[in-house]
What does this fold into?
Amino acid sequence: MKKVIALLLTLAMSVACVATLAACGEKAEPVAALITLHGSSSTYDKNFIDAFNTACQNKGLKKSQYTVKSDIDEDDSCYTAAADFADKGYKAIFADSFGHEDYMIKAAKEFTNVQFYHATGTKAHTEKLANFHNAFASIYEGRYLAGYAAGLLLNTMKNKAKNNNFQVGYIGAYTYAEVISGYTAWFLGLEAALDEGYTATMQVQFTGKWYDETLEKEVANTLIGNGAVLISQHADSMGAPTACQNATVPNVAYNGSTGLNTLVAYSKINWVPYFEMMLDQAMGGAAVATDYTGTMENSSVQWALGPNVAEGTLEKVQAVEKELKAGTRQVFDCSTFTVTKRAAGTNGENDFGLNVNATIDETGHLLQYHADVDTDVAFTGDTDVVKTVNGMRYFAESDKRSAPYFDIQIDRITLLNAIF
It folds into this structure.
């Protein structure tokens, strides 16, 4: 009898011990890991980090079940980090930078029982690995809306227009399609909001880096010195917004609020919905699409206004948002921009061979465009992405894959340099 009682006590203590350990998170199995190019000082990476932490908390994960590893370069150190997480038992591993993709694919091929996810990549739909996924969102729509808010503000700044034309500026990291798509969408939104009789032109300067606060500030100052009366960016620091604040020049941001009084608006991808799907899959739920595009409808694309806006901006931007959701307005409506055909390999300002895949009519409007959807080494244009729906011809961005492929250099935008 004593032996039976002792055995029952031992079992009871073991159960209590296991329960205590689980409550403390000491025995909880690892679930998800996030690999980022930079840390939270980068607005781009901070957006991922914040969303990842929020999603993990929303799903009830303990802190020991998820982790973030920052400052991982776009080289083999990404593979090493991913492989280390896989060895430790993490079920879902996500990397956030374009240049991480090949190293994540390498890890996915080795660790076939682990799911790997990657933002802004292009190869998941052609690699066809069951455990490798790309994800992005229709952020060009958010940028268009932020640009629309900027155009409404310019309508109150007509004294800044020269011959009824507003000169604006844009800081870009690289001449990737993602950046080109973003600045073009933003510019088209700005133009669409201008009062009749007014136009805009834009200078774009590239930094060749995703994150360099000093350089981004210098570029913003250069653009302001060239006559830009409003600045936006696809670069990841506070350099440009700070330069605008110092010069009292309106600024449109990306990935979140700057907290500065020159802020007009910002747009960002909200990664929480995608991370929650990723975590659901890791915990035995439904599989995530190989190539996923978030939308405004599921709150993956968000925008907000800053303090520096024209009266009535919120209602006007919300009205345009409804049109985008309904499909009665398209960001890349071919009737709203023109294209000058450029030969590949030529040199000169605003002439970098970006439009060689375009078929245009006699007025310069786009009829066809073969985009590089199935990425190869030569970035060959392989898929016509111009569609006509209800009489509207438009470039269908992110229709054939999640990552942007709009790489057209439209008229009225001047590239001051090119970083390929």
Remarks:
- The mean pLDDT is 92.
